[in-house]
Amino acid sequence: MQYWLFKSEPEAFSIDDLASAPRKTTSWDGVRNYQARNFMRDQMQVGDQAVFYHSSCAVPGVAGIVSIAKAAYPDATQFDSKHHHYDPDSKPEAPRWYMVDVKLIRKLKRVITLDELRQHQQRQLKELAILKRGNRLSVTPVGKAEWDFILSLE
Fold first, then answer.
1. pLDDT tens column, 39-79
2. Contacting residues for 133 by C-beta, under 8 A, at least 6 apart
3. Which ranges constitute the DSSP H helices of the chain?
4. CB-based contacts of 109, cutoff 8 Å, min separation 6
5. Which residues contact 132 (CB under 8 A, 6 or more apart)?
6. Reported confidence tier of residue 134, pLDDT bands at 50, 70, 90
7. Per-residue pLDDT for 135 more than 90?
8. Where are the alpha helices (DSSP H) in 13-143?
9. CA nearest to 58, candidates 138, 13, 114
10. C-alpha to C-alpha distance for 107 and 134, rounded to whole angstroms
11. Closest by alpha carbon to 64, among 110, 12, 26?
């Protein structure tokens, strides 16, 4: 099993939105960064787990745990000219963007804040991409030791 971090602005899509979705499952669409796409398309497997991270909000941090419910498949929003994720250069016969389906495992008892994560940046979380300067990816890998440590903070 591999571990990941999925980042979303709660005003766009929150852990509560996922909890309200049918079967607590939804597609993770709209990823428009090649490296994040490659993680989803080439490395994610059904059953992998991810922390759901709220960003660009009053209290950014880890809000829940999800699992990959469906492996990568073409993101339909890239072909919809009325959708804000439309990509006129992407074609159905050669899709550029992919998505996975995620299923809520559980909301955390409390948000593990970015400030709290930063307190451990020099030791236990030194490889955590979300803490690295300039990292803006919405999907990043998380090592097993980091995963275990993050969950121990709850």
1. 999 999 999 999 999 999 999 999 999 999 999 999 999 99
2. none
3. 15-20, 34-38, 114-118, 144-152
4. 154
5. none
6. confident
7. no
8. 15-20, 34-38, 114-118
9. 114
10. 28
11. 110
